[in-house]
């Protein structure tokens, strides 16, 4: 028998010169065949003690030789491998009815697979080297491999029930594939180095972890048919963490990803659906353990928390499915949730420390639910922020940290916004007398606070009694027994304690209009009016302004009367306030501020706007100014101080001529600089510092630290279109980021972007108009083409802007030809299937024949629909016939655009997107659905092209889809970087094709894509570098293809890598899975699953076909299933 079991090679000369041993082995082989044992397989009977090299332990009395396959059967289970360590055997088979074997002894090289046909669990305590991927199949009983596995090969748990336990200290580097049921491991490190694959066919898979905790960068790949549940059970100690990506080998399947077990687990990688809307992943949390999602996830199938605790600490905003929490389960965390939350169990915002759990959707809870908040102190407590509203019908429990001392005025906004439903608040007891919970704002603002109880037990008399040292005259309202400077009644009224440290609660300040308003908080109500006198010989410090001067103020009964804030005086003022309502007064600055006696004086602006319309006085002209706080200081005078100005907080507006103030201006992160004046020194904005867009500030020089468009404050909500100077001067452009139209921001209905001009930073405001203002009427069946043409030409004449398309159907009776003329145009609808452009003619919708290199077109949130009862021409064409030799003419960007036939059996665009001479075209979430003819009669001329691009430089297709076209993605004479990322080509003649000119540099990346066609999936011509990663390659399965089908065709290319791809769908009689043509060289084919055999075993399937000129091809760690996996 040769090592592949194809014939009895060692016994082919039985009647000639073969030895007696060889003859006996040939007879044994015949007996085994009659008994149903595979050729080349030696069967154990254990009749002679247990040593493997003893022939008496094997049927026929002949011991195995290297490369034989071993079958263990019967009840004699004692055995010991005494062959030389490392001897190769072709496989291990435990026969039906075999006893409980434990294979021990020297190590072997495993050249085949392992199968257990017995219902009895089997143990292999041998070390085994894996030269290639080996399959372990638990056909009838479990298998435990307690020996150590090593080598470059991988390990696959076969498509059968039962559990495979890997109990050794392993070091193999190939792929670990759990095809079905359970693989139990105690460590991830050593059990392969590639992503862990799970599932096959229509089978679910489980990876069970029993170790002591570890972190792995490996990802997880689902590879079964649709609807299966693949799970990770963390039953070990410590914490198990995955930081790799979880994805699908083919996007159209759709799975459930279960996180279970009794231990603690973290998935910090990304859970990604892929591009096909049908292939949504659902996350299921069950088991009593705790799992945490920390990645930026993109799955849409929803999240089910059925048991234990699921923490969401990462950014799940793109995971927009509903999160449901069952009665016995808990949802916790301080991350971002993208969908709605339906709560029957427990919700705990926060983590090890209190924090905020944010929900993009809404929260709905039933009467059995509980939401738990923890409060550590007034600045550190749990919060719940739900953009879609909060309905609470269960219990809301608040707990206090033991180290927190509650005080009147402490406020906790536990829930953002209004609350509906009928929540039951469970608040902890407050032990200090006179303190009480105020829940009056919980329903309207999600807020609870601590107040002084206005009940009879804290009337003035009771308040006095809290200090037993007070008696006799000390109890008078006007008395000040502790020498605080405030009377008993004043301290009582303003929320102080009766003891010596019971000073009044200070006022709070806010901005109303152009003035600062001081509001008193903590006031007691229910007693008579009190007169509060302030006798102060030191500074009166307001929360608004602190200077080195004495301040005084007056408060009158009339709340509209303004008090006077005057420095430099010693004045006693009387405060006369109605006790029954909080008082307030307004303050304004008059005359001069005092002299800043020392350089480096701080001006504290806690809030409010303060205008200094006189030169800032200094004792010496070299004084410096530091502004802190959160208020606004306006310098409108002509200042000449030569010291530096530092803005550590708040806003500094320089409206005067300070060109004589030659000191540098430093603006810290979070602080704001603006104004319309002139500075004499250099301006330094730290990273995170902000600049006001209404400024026209000039300075000697400007230096930015990581400045971006997002660092602009005070944007006009309705600016007129045009170009405006922001700053003028000598600008250091080294650290300026995100400048240019591609980094624009929105201001109301305008687009704002920045341009670096010589000695100036300009900002542009572009038009943003609605096509209905030009006569387009949705859904009336009348021609709207003229309105679109007029509105676009109007925008073009003003240098660019945005055309908005409201919801509805818009009809084009003729194709419109438009020259962008160097303008940058955005056409934006309200969503795919919502704003629809219908081509009611045989030419198409738009042709942009641009004549300037600066032209830029962006199209977003639209649907193009052929509606002509047949061929509707070319939906969108963008090129430049005037200058066909310029490769950098125009840019095209399309996001969230759909091409959908009105009648899927009749209407079609012959070409959907055609572009020529485009620079770095980008397509994101563009779905094209064509109409094709018969597969085999050559009638592919209905929908001819999905994407047809030529003579361009750079292109990116992200989450795109092209179906039922002759050519899905067709790029001719292309150069630069071409990227296909999570994009699909389905039911086309040819899926994706890129051809580069012979004299151009072109690189191609095909990442996580799904291609399923009739003739050819991927064709690349003259690529300087090609990377194909995790491609799911299918044969269209409507009827067997009689022609030769080719998955990947590569011609005259270099530096090629084909990694972790899956070749499936066994419907091609003749198939070449990788075809290398011409002078292609430097090819790495690694970690792929070649599953392209025709389903009934006939036909001709080639894994890799190479022309004579192909060189330097390395095939390693690939998997070749013996039977097609559907």
Please supply descriptive tags for the structure shown above.
mainly beta, 31-stranded mixed beta sheet, 15-stranded parallel beta sheet, 5 helices, 42% strand, Autotransporter-associated beta strand repeat, Pectin_lyase_fold/virulence
Please give the structural blueprint.
Elements: H1 20-34, E1 41-44, E2 69-72, E3 87-89, E4 91-94, E5 102-103, E6 108-110, E7 114-116, E8 122-124, E9 128-130, E10 134-137, E11 143-145, E12 149-150, E13 155-157, E14 163-166, E15 176-178, E16 181-185, E17 196-198, E18 205-209, E19 214-216, E20 220-222, E21 229-234, E22 239-242, E23 246-248, E24 255-260, E25 264-267, E26 281-285, E27 290-293, E28 303-305, E29 308-312, E30 315-316, E31 323-325, E32 329-333, E33 336-337, E34 341-343, E35 346-349, E36 356-359, E37 363-365, E38 370-377, E39 380-381, E40 383-386, E41 390-391, E42 395-400, E43 411-413, E44 419-420, E45 424-426, E46 435-438, H2 442-445, E47 447-452, H3 460-465, H4 488-493, E48 508-512, E49 515-519, E50 530-534, E51 545-546, E52 573-577, E53 584-587, E54 601-605, E55 609-612, E56 625-629, E57 632-635, E58 645-647, E59 651-654, E60 657-658, E61 665-667, E62 672-674, E63 678-679, E64 682-685, E65 690-692, E66 697-704, E67 712-713, E68 722-732, E69 745-747, E70 750-757, E71 760-770, H5 785-797, E72 800-804, E73 808-812, E74 816-818, E75 824-828, ...
Parallel strand pairs: 1-2, 2-4, 3-6, 4-7, 5-8, 6-9, 7-10, 8-11, 9-12, 10-13, 11-14, 13-15, 14-16, 15-17, 16-18, 17-20, 18-21, 19-22, 20-23, 21-24, 22-25, 24-26, 25-27, 26-28, 27-29, 28-31, 29-32, 30-33, 31-34, 32-35, 33-36, 34-37, 35-38, 36-40, 37-41, 38-42, 41-44, 42-45, 54-56, 55-57, ...
Antiparallel strand pairs: 38-39, 43-47, 46-47, 48-49, 49-53, 50-52, 51-54, 68-71, 69-70, 70-71
Keywords: Signal
Protein name: Autotransporter-associated beta strand repeat
Pfam families: PATR
């Amino acid at each position: 028998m040769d090592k592949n079991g194809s014939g009895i090679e060692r016994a082919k000369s039985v009647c000639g010169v073969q030895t007696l041993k060889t003859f006996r082995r040939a007879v044994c082989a015949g007996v085994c065949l009659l008994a149903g044992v595979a050729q080349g397989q030696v069967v154990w009977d254990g009749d002679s003690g247990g040593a493997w090299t003893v022939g008496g332990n094997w049927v026929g009395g002949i011991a195995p030789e290297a490369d034989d396959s071993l079958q263990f059967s019967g009840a004699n289970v004692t055995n010991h491998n005494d062959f030389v360590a490392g001897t190769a055997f072709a496989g291990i088979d435990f026969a039906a009815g075999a006893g409980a074997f434990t294979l021990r002894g020297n190590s072997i090289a495993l050249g085949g697979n392992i199968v257990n046909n017995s219902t009895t669990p089997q143990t292999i305590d041998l070390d085994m080297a894996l030269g290639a991927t080996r399959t372990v199949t638990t056909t009838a009983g479990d298998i435990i491999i307690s020996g150590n596995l090593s080598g470059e090969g991988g390990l696959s748990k076969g498509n059968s029930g039962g559990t495979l336990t890997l109990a050794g200290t392993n070091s193999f580097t190939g792929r670990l594939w759990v095809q079905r049921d359970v693989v139990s491991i105690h460590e991830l490190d050593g059990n392969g180095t590639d992503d862990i694959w799970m599932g096959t066919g229509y089978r679910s898979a489980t990876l069970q972890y029993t170790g002591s905790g570890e972190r792995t960068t490996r990802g997880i790949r689902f590879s079964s048919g649709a609807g299966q549940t693949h799970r990770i059970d963390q039953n070990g100690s410590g914490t198990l963490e995955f930081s790799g990506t979880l994805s699908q080998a083919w996007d159209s399947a759709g799975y459930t990803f279960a996180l279970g077990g009794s231990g603690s687990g973290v998935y910090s990688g990304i859970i990604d659906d892929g591009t096909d809307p049908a292939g949504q992943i659902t996350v299921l949390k069950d088991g009593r353990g705790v799992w945490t999602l920390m990645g930026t996830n993109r799955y849409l199938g929803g999240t089910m928390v059925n048991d234990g605790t699921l923490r969401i600490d990462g950014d799940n905003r793109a995971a927009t499915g509903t999160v449901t929490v069952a009665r016995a389960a808990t949802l916790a965390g301080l991350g971002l949730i993208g969908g709605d939350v339906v709560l029957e169990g427990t919700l705990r915002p926060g983590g090890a420390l209190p924090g905020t759990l944010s929900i993009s959707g809404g929260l709905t809870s039933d009467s059995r639910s509980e939401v738990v908040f923890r409060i550590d102190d007034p600045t550190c407590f749990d919060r719940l922020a739900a953009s879609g509203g909060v309905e609470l019908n269960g219990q809301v429990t608040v707990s206090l940290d033991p180290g927190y001392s509650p005080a009147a005025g402490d406020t906790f906004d536990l829930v953002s916004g209004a609350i509906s439903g009928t929540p039951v608040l469970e608040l902890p007891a407050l032990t200090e007398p006179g303190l009480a919970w105020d829940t009056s704002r919980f329903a309207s603002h999600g807020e609870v606070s601590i107040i002084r109880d206005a009940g009879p037990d804290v009337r003035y008399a009771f308040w006095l009694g809290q200090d037993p040292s007070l008696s006799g005259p000390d109890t008078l309202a006007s008395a000040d027994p502790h020498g605080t400077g405030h009377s008993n009644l004043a301290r009582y009224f303003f929320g102080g304690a009766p003891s010596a440290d019971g000073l009044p609660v200070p006022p709070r300040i806010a901005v109303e209009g152009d003035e600062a308003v001081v509001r008193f908080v903590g006031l007691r109500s229910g007693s008579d009016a009190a007169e509060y006198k302030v006798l102060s010989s030191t500074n009166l410090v307001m929360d608004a302004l602190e200077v080195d001067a004495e301040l005084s103020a007056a408060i009158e009964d009339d709340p509209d009367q303004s008090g006077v804030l005057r420095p430099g005086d010693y004045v006693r003022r009387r405060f006369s306030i109605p006790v029954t309502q909080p008082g307030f007064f307004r303050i304004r600055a008059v005359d001069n501020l005092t002299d800043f006696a020392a350089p480096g004086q701080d001006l504290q602006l806690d809030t409010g706007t303060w205008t200094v319309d006189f030169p800032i006085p200094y004792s010496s002209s070299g004084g410096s100014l530091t502004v802190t706080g959160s208020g606004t200081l306006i310098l409108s005078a002509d200042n000449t101080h030569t010291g530096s100005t530092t803005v550590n907080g708040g806003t500094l507006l320089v409206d005067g001529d300070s060109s004589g103030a030659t000191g540098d201006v430093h603006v810290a992160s979070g602080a704001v600089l603006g104004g319309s004046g002139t500075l004499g020194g250099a301006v330094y904005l730290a990273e995170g510092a902000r600049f006001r867009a209404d400024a026209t500030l000039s300075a000697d020089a400007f230096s930015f630290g990581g400045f971006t468009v997002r660092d602009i404050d005070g944007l006009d909500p309705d600016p007129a279109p045009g170009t405006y100077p922001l700053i003028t001067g000598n600008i250091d452009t080294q650290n300026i980021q995100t400048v240019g139209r591609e980094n624009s921001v929105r201001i109301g209905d305008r687009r704002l972007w920045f341009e670096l001009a010589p000695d100036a930073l300009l900002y542009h405001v572009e038009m943003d108009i609605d096509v209905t203002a030009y006569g387009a009427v949705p859904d009336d069946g009348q021609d709207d083409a003229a309105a679109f043409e007029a509105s676009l030409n109007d925008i073009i004449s003003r240098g660019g802007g945005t055309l908005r398309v409201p919801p509805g159907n818009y009809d084009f009776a003729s194709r419109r030809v438009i020259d962008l003329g160097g303008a940058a145009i955005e056409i934006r609808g309200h969503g795919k299937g919502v704003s629809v452009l219908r081509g009611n003619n045989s030419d198409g919708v738009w042709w942009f024949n641009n004549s300037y290199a600066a032209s830029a077109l962006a199209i977003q949130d639209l649907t193009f629909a052929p509606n002509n009862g047949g061929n509707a021409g070319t939906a969108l064409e963008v090129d430049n016939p005037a200058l066909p030799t310029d490769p950098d003419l125009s840019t095209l960007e399309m996001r969230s655009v759909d091409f959908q036939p009105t009648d899927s059996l009749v209407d079609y665009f012959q070409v959907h997107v055609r572009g020529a001479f485009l620079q770095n075209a980008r397509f994101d979430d563009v779905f094209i659905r064509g109409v094709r003819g018969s597969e085999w009669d050559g009638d592919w001329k209905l929908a001819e092209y999905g994407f047809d691009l030529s003579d361009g430089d750079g292109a990116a297709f992200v989450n795109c889809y092209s179906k039922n076209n002759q050519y899905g993605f067709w790029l001719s004479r292309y150069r630069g970087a071409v990227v296909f990322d999570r994009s699909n080509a389905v039911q086309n003649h040819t899926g994706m094709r890129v051809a580069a000119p012979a004299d151009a540099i072109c690189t191609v990346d095909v990442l996580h894509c799904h291609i399923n066609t009739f003739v050819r999936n991927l064709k690349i011509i003259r690529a300087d570098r090609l990377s194909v990663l995790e491609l799911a390659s299918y044969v269209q399965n409507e009827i067997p293809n009689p022609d030769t089908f080719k998955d990947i065709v590569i011609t005259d290319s270099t530096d090629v890598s084909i990694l972790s791809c899956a070749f499936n769908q066994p419907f091609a009689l003749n198939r070449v899975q990788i075809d290398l043509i011409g002078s292609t060289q430097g090819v790495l084919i690694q970690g792929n699953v070649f599953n392209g055999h025709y389903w009934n075993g006939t036909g001709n399937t080639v894994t890799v076909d190479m022309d004579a000129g192909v060189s330097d091809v390395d095939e390693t760690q690939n998997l070749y299933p013996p039977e097609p996996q559907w």
